[in-house]
Amino acid sequence: MTDYAIAPDTLKDTVAAALGDQALHVTVALGEVTVTVAPDRYPAAMKTLRDAAGCRFEQLLDLCGVDYSAYGDGRWEGARFAVVSHLLSVSLNQRLRVRVFCADDEFPAVSSVADLWNSASWFEREAFDLYGIMFEGHTDLRRILTDYGFIGHPFRKDFPLSGHVEMRYDPERQRVIYEPVSIEPREITPRVIREDNYGGLH
């Protein structure tokens, strides 16, 4: 392992050379390198990043979904959903962010990379659960955080802030049941309490 991380501009050039036309663009911002790849080149690009001599990203540290529909106060004009991964090369002491946009906003999908990094399996399940992004080739794509009967994907920007049903365990029936939400809206008025002579005022 090297003593110091590779300079971002050097890593940018290395990644761009390794990926060639597999990369749409490679950028440096705030000292971090991000590569964006097209969905049809995503599996090949990720394999290149894992195996190429100057890359050798042996670990996938994180993978998440992103909903860009409200990005920039609604001025975003690109694809709505993306998958963002963070890769680490222990042997070369370097990190990389990879972003791939889903081609279809109505049915967002990209290929799974769980066959390249085992750690991607649960991350992809989470992105499926919270954003509804499908990972083609995933061998066990099912919800991981919400209940199996849950409807919708709660990290989407258009998901309602207050639900319509609540789930609880019923000891009499000895099972989980669903009921309409029983929370009634109420108005909260903040109270301001100050001591006498607060701030030197009389």
Descriptive overview:
With 202 residues, this protein is of the alpha/beta class. The chain has a single domain, classed as NADH:ubiquinone oxidoreductase Nqo5 subunit (Beta Polymerase, domain 2, 2-Layer Sandwich). The protein contains three helices and nine strands. It has helices at 8-19, 42-51, 120-131; strands at 23-29, 32-37, 59-67, 81-89, 94-101, 109-111, 134-136, 165-170, 175-180. A five-stranded mixed sheet has the order 1-2-5-4-3. Strands 6-7 form a two-stranded parallel ribbon. Strands 8-9 form a two-stranded antiparallel ribbon. The radius of gyration is 23 Å and the shape is extended. It starts with 7 loop residues before the first helix and ends in a 22-residue tail after the last strand.
